[in-house]
TrEMBL record:
Binds directly to 16S ribosomal RNA. GO terms for cellular component: ribosome. Keywords: Ribonucleoprotein, Ribosomal protein, RNA-binding, rRNA-binding. This is Small ribosomal subunit protein bS20. It holds the Pfam family Ribosomal_S20p. InterPro entries: Ribosomal_bS20 (IPR002583), Ribosomal_bS20_sf (IPR036510). It comes from Desulfotalea psychrophila. Residues 1-28, 66-90 are annotated as: Disordered. Residues 1-11 have a biased composition (Basic and acidic residues).
Length: 90
């Protein structure tokens, strides 16, 4: 347990950041799931729309420091690759 005033403040800040990071990460995962669902249904328009919504959310999550920027870049790249592959197949 924190014994100093500064340690107590640091503990409060850590809790707030943890909850904020958790919310950001959950939002990112949900938009990724939306892209996956659109790909599974086979709707090109829905997949492209979901991807255009997901890319800024993933980028924002990385810019806030919740995930590493290379992790975000990899997620965007893989999602884009899957959507493009779906369009080529059709």
């Amino acid at each position: 347990m924190a014994n100093h005033k500064s340690a107590e403040k640091r503990n409060r800040q850590s809790q707030v950041r943890r909850l904020r990071n958790r919310a950001n990460r959950t939002h990112m995962r949900n938009v990724i799931k939306a892209v996956d669902a659109a790909i599974v249904t086979g709707s090109q328009e829905d997949a492209q729309t979901a991807l255009s919504v997901a890319i800024p959310v993933i980028a924002k999550t990385a810019s806030k420091g919740t995930v590493h920027k290379k992790n975000a870049s990899r997620k965007v790249s893989r999602l884009t690759k899957r959507v493009n592959k779906m369009q080529v197949a059709a």
